[in-house]
Amino acid sequence: MFTVLALALIPATRYYQIDQPLLRLFRGAGAVDPLALHLEGEFVENNLGTEQGADGSVTVRMIAQQYLFVPHCILVPAGVPVHLRITSADAVHALAFNGTDYNVKVLPGTISEAQLRFANPGEFKTVCREFCGAGHYAMRSALKVVPREQFPVLQAGERGNCAVQ
Ligand SMILES: [Cu+2]
Q1: Which residues are CB-contacts of 80 (< 8 A; sequence separation ≥ 6)?
Q2: How far, in Å, is the centroid of ligand 1 from the Cα of 69?
Q3: Average pLDDT, integer, range 60-88
Q4: 115 C-alpha to center of ligand 1: Å?
Q5: From ligand 1's centre to the CA of 3, what distance in Å?
């Protein structure tokens, strides 16, 4: 009886060693480890914010976590395609820009992508629209849209943010 029990328990105790890496492998390229975002990969701190592509479009990388969005203020040029890539460090969140129809669900372990475009300069409040805990209602930040010619010219590896402007 003990042997049967022991044999049944061995795989269970190996979950984090065997199953977790396997699950990550099968989930494919879109998967990220929510516990290691600040340590390695696409969402390390100096890769967050607005990156300029050679074709003039921009890519914005963000992290949603209890209870803030990182970076706290996003800067993008007007009238330019904005490719958003965002992931969560903990719970399920939803990134929304007040005054627009954009609402992006953000889950830990996966990268949510969205194509955005802001026709005119302006400032939008960024809010979380998925209840994520006690501090949910304080989870607010900002998106600044500036005229295209006022957006800083970014070098390779440089990321735009509200402080640069
Ligand atoms: Cu929230």
Answers
A1: 56, 57, 58, 117, 148
A2: 10
A3: 95
A4: 21
A5: 47
